[in-house]
Design brief:
The complex is a heterodimer. Chain A is an all-alpha fold. Chain A is built from 2 helices and no strands. In chain A, 48% of the residues are buried. Chain B is an all-alpha fold. Chain B is 71% helix and 0% strand. Chain B is built from 11 helices and no strands. Chain B has helices at residues 2-20, 39-52, 59-62, 70-99, 102-110, 116-124, 129-159, 178-199, 202-235, 242-267, 273-300. In chain B, helix 2 (39-52) crosses helix 10 and helix 9 runs antiparallel to helix 10. The chains are: A mainly alpha, B mainly alpha. Chains A and B meet through helix 1 and helix 2 of A and helix 7, helix 8, helix 9 and helix 11 of B.
Chain lengths: 80, 319
């Protein structure tokens, strides 16, 4: 809104792409270290499978953590 | 964060301790510009990943509306964090360049490995699992911050009617934008798996997305600097300061535009299509697509671009 609404929308969309790409790159790096852990533990998993598993595992964990704060009150209500 | 920082510093201290016993092994050579691999082009290609180390701090500003007294603390925290991280990176990167010969690091990269784990194994043996554990906790924290930042932006645009209303819904007592969070995580999984399938190399996939995100980060920073000048000239002229609202943003705009030119259209364009040219082509195509979308919005739904930002949201427990 400082410059004009159209520029504001462009800025918003560019920022979404920027933050999305930042988010996409993180589980890929996690997957590389997950494969290192698999190698360290002498577990036989083909390279790409270990990477894919690491990526999916971390994303599932993050989705659970980010939505956990929403579920907490519901479980309290249920237990009450 | 203290544990992660401690592990990184402990590894650096171990490397320095071991290298100190070898004549000439500890030197300031990595700080000498004459030692830059592949000259100026190599420097600018490395700057992209250097900038990556700082990308993401701005997520804090996006989440400021959920913080207490953000105007007081957020700017101060950002500046302290940037200076602290710069010093941390400079010291640790210097030590890591001393830890292993360049040819060996290139060998690790060619195998799709991160260099830090084999380097840690060379100095700590099986204790290198500490580095892996540190990476896990650090990356998990970064992922949470990134998902929070991206989902809040999607929520903000949806709240304004500029994205589907599905993403503007808040759920539960904590008012979490569940749909926005889910679309961000699902996009991460889909794009991550897609890049692994195409590139068949985890390290190349990470570098590809890292290069791409720095392009959009530089565009964002340029926009922030432009907004700084315009805001204090047009909307808050009484608070205008020449240094803060003119000199610094103009320098910021110049640096970011030069970075885009030198790092992307020169250095990255000169590298193979797989992790170089393809980044430039796809980033430009994506940016063009954004501009076309905004133009369509301006032509066909101009009403959405007028009026002030909405303050109310749909908190119904929809599907």
């Amino acid at each position: 809104m400082t410059v004009n609404p159209t520029t504001g929308l462009v800025a918003g969309l560019v920022m979404i792409v920027y933050f999305l790409m930042a988010a996409i790159s993180v589980p890929l790096l996690f997957a590389l270290f997950f494969r290192d852990l698999v190698v360290w533990a002498h577990v036989e998993i083909p390279g790409m499978s270990a990477l894919a598993a690491g990526l999916v595992l971390q994303s599932a964990l993050i989705a659970w953590v980010c939505l956990l704060e929403e579920r907490k009150p519901r479980s309290r209500r249920q237990s009450a | 964060m203290l544990i992660e920082t401690g592990v990184a510093l402990a590894l650096s201290a171990t490397i320095l301790w071991v290298k100190a016993g070898q004549p000439g092994a500890v030197n300031l050579g990595p700080f000498d510009p004459a030692h830059v691999t592949h000259g100026l082009s190599g420097f600018w290609a490395a700057i992209i990943l250097g900038m990556l180390a700082f990308s993401g701090f701005d997520v804090v500003a996006t989440a400021a509306e959920e913080a207490q007294a953000p105007r007081q603390h957020v700017p101060r925290v950002l500046i302290v964090a940037v200076i602290g991280v710069a010093l941390f990176w400079a010291v640790n990167a210097w030590v890591l360049t001393l830890s292993a010969p360049l040819a060996q690091v290139l060998e690790y990269n060619a195998e799709g490995l991160t260099a830090i784990t084999p380097v840690a194994r060379a100095y700590w043996g099986w204790g290198n699992v500490l580095v892996v554990a540190t990476a896990f906790t650090g990356l998990t924290a970064i992922y949470i911050a990134s998902v929070q930042g991206a989902s809040r932006l999607i929520f903000a645009l949806a709240r304004h009617g500029l994205l589907p209303p599905l993403f503007a819904r808040l759920k539960g007592e904590k008012r979490v934008p569940k749909n926005a969070v889910l679309i961000v995580v699902l996009t991460c999984v889909a794009m991550g798996l897609l890049s692994l399938a195409i590139l068949h190399n985890g390290l190349d996939s990470f570098i590809w997305w890292s290069n791409a995100l720095v392009f959009f980060a530089a565009l964002t920073y340029t926009g922030v600097n432009v907004a700084n000048i315009v805001y204090f000239r047009r909307i808050a002229p009484a608070h205008f300061k020449v240094l803060h609202n003119m000199v610094v943003p103009i320098a910021g705009i110049g640096l970011n535009l030069y970075l885009i030119y030198a790092a992307f259209f020169s250095a990255l364009w000169a590298t193979p299509f797989r992790t170089g040219k393809s980044v430039v082509v796809i980033c430009l195509a994506l940016f063009a697509l954004l501009l076309v979308s905004v133009t369509c919005m301006r032509l066909f739904r101009r009403d959405l671009l007028t009026g002030s930002a909405p303050v109310s949201v749909d908190t119904t427990e929809g599907r």
